[in-house]
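A quick word before the example. In earlier lectures we treated sequence and structure as two separate objects. From today on, think of them as two lines of the same record. Here is Aldo/keto reductase written that way.
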Amino acid sequence: MTKSSLGKSSLAVSPLAWGMWRFKGSDVKAARARVEAAIAAGLTFLDTADIYGPDNDEPFGAAEALFGLVLKEAPQLRDQIVLASKGGIVMGTPYDSSAAYLESAVEASLSRMGVEKIDLYQIHRPDHLAHPAEVAQVLTRLRSAGKIGEVGLSNHTAAQVSALQAHLAFPIACVQIEFSPLVVGPLYDGTLDQALETGMGVMAWSPLAQGRLADGPSTDERVIAVRAELDKAAAAHGVSRTVAAYAWLLAHPSKPIPIIGSQQPDRIAEATQALDVQLTRPEWYALLTAARGVPLP
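And the structure line, produced from the sequence above:
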């Protein structure tokens, strides 16, 4: 799998990432097998967050802690991956990007994972009470100290990205957004246009629209329409619906990196088929039209 630079950063990453939102449990050997399956499939860009845990009925930091146990058992895996994590969400607050909090959050993530450096550190959600100059200063200090490598933003608007970038002496590596054949807002809200303008990288979370594009009953007309168009494209290219969905994202010139959330080795490996699928313009726009629910102008 050919790697490429993440935006203008020093990181060379795989074109698909593996997400660890559902990385849970106490079986370290099973967890290690999942990590190794992702790496074996070529997904060497791993994305986690300190908040991953409570959604799985586990403590705050549980996913990072489990990954730390995997690395303790198999430390050689660390050199095979680009490690991304996120911080800034606090249970009950809910957002804190103050300098003091971010410094403590990074230290806690490093400790949980047992690593010396987080290759890509992302502010998980915008904190409207944190001045971007303060955020920039603490990120710069953490980067200079070698505790984080590059900086990214998650779920920030194009304007919020610009506001932070104005106070940084180095480029923001990437923005992580919700983007799928069902969630097409980034095509119209300036996010992807900004990435094309600046050369910033893009990561796409929930590329299957939180499972809504998978099989299962649905009464949502838009979901049904998008599924139907995906099935047409999938049949034309001899792949599954999920692979067609990933291929739709990969076709955009900003080169979004879909974050594959599956914990099943066969589904992780299947995702790589999307790299060989070239949707036609009619196929791509048919999906966009279905997602919008109205004809294109």
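Notice the following. The domain at 4-213+253-273 is CATH 3.20.20.100 (TIM Barrel). We will return to this example when we discuss secondary structure assignment.
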